[in-house]
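FYI - complex with NAP, inputs then prediction.
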Amino acid sequence: MEGRKLVTGWAARDASGILSPYSFHLMRKTGKEDVLIKVLYCGMDHTDLHHMRNEILSTRYPLVLVHEVVGEVGEQGSEGTKFKVGDIVGVGCFIIGSCGECSLCQSGMEQYCQSRIFTYNHDTNKDGMPTRGGFSSAMVVHQKFVVKIPGKLAPEQVAPLLCAGVTAYSPLRQFMGSGKGLIKAGILGLGGVGHLGVIIAKAMGHHVTVISSSESKREETLEHLGADAFLVSSDADEMRRAMGTLDYILDTVPAPHTLQAYLPQLKVDAKLIVVGAAPKPLQFEANGLILGKKTITGSFIGSMEEMQELLDFWAEKGLESKVEVVKLDYVNKAFERMERNDVKFRFVVDACGWQQPPLNSSSRSLH
Ligand code: NAP
Ligand code: ZN
């Protein structure tokens, strides 16, 4: 394995999605422009559930999940310039790459580059194994795909920004300085991405309406997340009153749903921005778009520049995510709770103890 470090982590072995301890060699040793990162905190994203269940793309097991990773630089490659040992840094959905040469890479849209390599479950043709994510004691990442965490931010708070946060920030940023007056935002689905969408949209000065399936989230959303209005999607009267009021809706729902239900709440010429990766087709009627010149569009995470910009924006505005920090041995329970929509609003795993993982624990049980 020529110098590649043996690390310990947790992996899903099959689509049942139960994680258990797993040791493996890092994909490569620390290259000239790489950093070796000791993992400290990891956010848990619904995309992890989709991958674990083999619902999107094609999953290869053992699967080492997660791509919202905060860690400490443990080694810097010989030509590394961006960081120093001991820096607190973040890694999102890419670890090695994008080609750096295509028009997308050149215009700050490297997340759409066809040569992109995702942080986990991505074949690199290097050692016959897919990439592996942050549920690991360490990772090797090209410095280009690492961001600096501003000193005043708490690392566990910041982890969800590295995927969920930038997923909301990137499409919402287009409305900043658009000169359209008060922007009326809609956030559909109040989980990890959705709650960060509310916080970011408010910090951008938008008027924010949450559309949720859960009445139980109303009070917290209005009182603690700062949203201006809250609609329960099954309440026909509430939904009718909101018709034609929104400039955009950020749709974060991870399950099949009909888009048609949310088009009437958009103003003429407004946008439904789909970021939730529902594993089945979403439906709408052509007239729902035509008669109001409405647009349905998608958006995929954000660029590295946007990720750093979000972290700086977050620090400058003094924002705070709402996370539930759990220990490593709680991850199976946490995924089970995420699946039944029982988290306000993001699990973050305290991975500081992963340097000595409980390799003998009976962690294949759910509890
Ligand atoms: P999450 O924390 O589980 O939140 C999803 C929210 O959607 C729930 O809190 C719930 O909010 C609502 N929901 C409505 N129907 C649901 C159902 N049947 N099952 C579960 N939730 C339901 O998920 P997340 O981490 O925010 O991710 C949301 C989606 O975005 C996932 O599909 C994920 O893969 C995708 N994603 C995409 C990108 C991208 O780049 N485009 C990046 C990150 C994540 P209410 O209770 O308010 O209804
Ligand atoms: Zn490219």
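The longest strand covers residues 34-44. Confidence is low (pLDDT under 50) at residues 357-367.
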